[in-house]
Amino acid sequence: MMNTHRAVREVFGFFLCLGRKTGKTRVFALLGLVPVALAVVVRVVLHGRTGDMAAVFTEILMVFFLQFYIVILALFYGTSVVAEEVEGRTLSYLITRPIAKPAIVLGKYAAYSLLMFLMVAVSLSLSFFIMNAGRLADARLYLTYLSYLGVLGLGILAYTAFFSFLGTVLKKAILVGLVFGFGWENVIQYFPGSTQKFSVVHYLKSLLPYRPMGGGGGGVALLLFRLEPTSPAIAVLMLAVIAGVFLALACWVFRTKEYLYEE
Amino acid sequence: MTAVIAATHLSKWYGNVLGLNDVSLEIEAGITGLLGPNGAGKSTFMKLITGQMKPNIGQVTVRGRKSWNSPVLFRDIGFCPENDVFYEEMTGWEFVTGLLRFYGYSASEIKERAAKALDIVELTKDKDRLIRGYSRGMRQRVKFAQAIAHDPEIVILDEPLSGLDPLGKRKLIKLIKEFKSEGRTVLVSSHVLPEIEALTSEIVLVHQGKILAQGDIRFIRELIESHPHMISVRSSDPRALAARFVGDRSIQKMSFGADGRTLVVETHKRDDFFGCLTGVVLEGGIEIEEISSPDDNLQAVFEYLVGK
Amino acid sequence: MATIREKGYSHWDGKLAERRYPWWPITRVGIRLAFRKKAFKFVFAGAFMPSFIALVGLYISERLEDFKAIVRSNETLINVSPEYFKTFFTSNGLLFLIILVLSFAGSGLIADDLKHNSLQLYFSRPLRKKDYLLGKMSVVFFFVLILTAVPGLVLFIFKMIFAGSFKFFLEYPWLPLSILGYSALLSVFFAFYVLLLSASSKNTRYATILVFATYIFSNVLFGILMSIFHKPALALFSIPANLQQAGAFLYGQKLPFAFPAVWSFVLLAGICALSAVVLNRKTRSVEVIK
């Protein structure tokens, strides 16, 4: 039997190859071109107003990335880690190989996370640098860019781990995921005190490299509305813990649960 | 001989539905046919053997090791599932090589094994086509290829001949028989009796989750005392033959075949009847052309056992 | 003389009789299948919450004296008028719940048939393509109407019951037509919308995401564009905004966005037309493999 590390690597390779070929990946990648198109349009409309463009990107386009794009991607790919194999009845091909079951979850999770990260990275990079084309000589721009990329990357890891866990446990994981991703995660920001901390998006927003100027702009309200941010170190730790815990749970459930195909 | 696969008081429920009912059996090396109608429990049994399901009661072991959560066993097990499902965006080549990656082979060995397996199932020409575009028979063959590509000692085939044309079936049957001569253990399921008969005489009959019988077809038939044996005798004068037999108490019933040359006899005492037949032959006067047992086959055995 | 009967699946050779409503069995089964899912029953029940709240509001408006002890300052806490009904029907909450219910009940309507190659089973019966599509659409009609038309008319009737007179009806005799008209608009639009996305994939999970995400994305896109360009016509990008614009028009109320309501109707009709074209292509009995 292969050791777990190698097994994870092989599963990763298998699904990375498979995942990038599917029509759904193309659709999601195309969706990622929407902010790029918006960035081009905004650049034409707000030609010369670099300050405005920076604000537009930070305050508005990040709403698309943070509260829609990565959630939708993670929801689809995360639930697909196990649910796709059960619905497609291809699970037999995987669990009758000499590899530990958790390696299947981990390998597939890693493959899909990388795919999603690449889609988000291309979309973010293009839209960010188009919007900030007038400030390319500014070193702080690249730090900001890397911060955004890091936030979205951590968001992908955390959300995908959670949705992967849902996918191992529930038959209709996608619906619970939709309610969580677009219901709970949006509504929780209106709750006072520590309630906000019971969401992934709180920690992601706490890491954003932007704070509203006095009075706040119109778009800032969308992202940072009533945010009582957690310190960046704690936020990163919590996201890592969320990803780790749910991934471990997903592995454990997948190892112990029996999956029956629907007749 | 040590059992390769052993089930002990194996039971499996699907909610309130009993899939397998207290099954205890041992399967040895060679080809064993698992026969039963749809819903009998064949696939359930195979899924329990291959660790895809957990038994509710009892256990199933492969080479002495429980199959549930024992991935190490799969180094030597090849499984061909019944469902016609694949990773449709892959080509046949990608599918077989992709799954071979999970065995720890080097890249060159993966290619070699995949090429050999696809050659065996005659898919070399179509290996670079998407599985989505394969015919039903090709899909079945590529499924078989992934089951044998890693040279497993134990091969579990769930309805492997389904979807194949007669020529394809003959080729696959020949291939499966070669496994036996190589000393492998093959468990093949089907609900089509002639397919199983063509593959093996060692059968396990399953019906409504229970094992009705296990062993050689002919020995099972011998054991069915409640049903008389049918013997068909083709001769030059079947009516004269019937006249000679009518006084023999071992014979329960006689009828004539549609061809006008066959006499079909039903008897509980086969040996006594053959003794009588031998006497008739020695007396002379009637030319015996052919003697056969129409019910000495799986269909008849199965029907007798399920009481149809 | 004995004949050998083939036991395999074969086309029926008898004379095909015309049914009065050939699409009805498809609708019936589609609704039944949706209710088989346990979680769906929970979500469906929850989707009636806005209607219940509106009913409570209606009750309060007629029992204001009883609530005067609680309501100190404002005598007309709730003014029940066509605006009240329009607010209820075009609320983001109700539309969100409808799309959630339809994600559950509608995303697999055609996706499952494509996955299991069932179309040839349908079309080997005396069923035309339009019967098949009407049957599937009727599943969506059922769920949308039961969440809109039924509570709307019930609210209207309860308003008169709580008021103890027909005054409300005499004041706004066209209101039931508005309720029915807007419900019909929602039903037809959502039917085309859900079936379009259900037909775009054999994977029900993916279709569910598409149904939900397209709806949400359209609104997110509108929000982004509005923040940048501040042009009300950008609401045309948003499905819920268009539905709200059309709803306000049908209720004879002030339009939420400063552009002609006819644009929203045209856009919604355009989506329905696109859906009709796609559905016509996708639903055929023989699969063409490219």
Q: Could you walk me through the main structural features you see in this protein, from its secondary elements to its overall organization?
A:
- The complex is a heterotrimer of chains A (263), B (308) and C (290).
- With 263 residues, chain A is an all-alpha fold.
- Chain A has one domain (4-256).
- Chain A has helices at 4-19, 23-31, 34-45, 50-87, 91-95, 101-131, 139-169, 173-187, 200-206, 220-224, 232-256.
- Chain B has a 6-stranded mixed beta sheet with strand order 6-7-8-3-9-10, sandwiched between helices.
- Chain B folds into 2 domains: 5-221, P-loop containing nucleotide triphosphate hydrolases (Rossmann fold, 3-Layer(aba) Sandwich); 224-295, Alpha-Beta Plaits (2-Layer Sandwich).
- Chain B contains 10 helices and 14 strands.
- In chain B, α2 crosses α3 (107-120) and α3 (107-120) crosses α4 (136-148).
- Chain B has 308 residues and is α/β, with parallel strands linked by helices.
- Chain C has 290 residues and is an all-alpha fold.
- The chains are: A mainly alpha (263), B alpha/beta (308), C mainly alpha (290).
- Chains in contact: A-B, A-C.
- Chain A binds chain B through residues 1-2, 6-7, 10-11, 13-14, 17-18, 21-22, 88-101, 255, 258-261, and chain B through 14, 50-54, 69, 71-75, 77, 79, 81, 83, 85-87, 89-90, 94, 98-99, 101-104, 146.
User: What's the CATH class label of the largest domain in chain B?
Assistant: Alpha Beta
Order of helices and strands of chain B: EEEHEEEHHHEHEHEEHEHEEHEH
Largest interface: A-B, 31 and 29 residues
Helical content class of chain B: 25-40%
Structural class of chain B: alpha/beta
- Cα-to-Cα separation, first versus last residue of chain B: 35 Å
Q: Biggest β-sheet of chain A, characterized?
A: none
**Which descriptor suits the 3D outline of chain A?**
globular
By DSSP (H or I, 4+ residues per run), the number of helices of chain A equals 11
> What's the β-strand tally of chain A?
0
β-strand amount of chain B: 25-35%
Under CATH, the homologous superfamily of the largest domain in chain B reads: P-loop containing nucleotide triphosphate hydrolases
Number of self-contained structural domains of chain B: 2
Mean pLDDT of chain B: 87
Helix and strand pattern of chain A? HHHHHHHHHHH
Low-pLDDT ranges of chain B? none
Output the radius of gyration of chain A.
19 Å
Number of helices of chain B: 10
- Give me the side-by-side strand order of the main sheet of chain B: 6-7-8-3-9-10
Tell me the total number of β-strands of chain B: 14
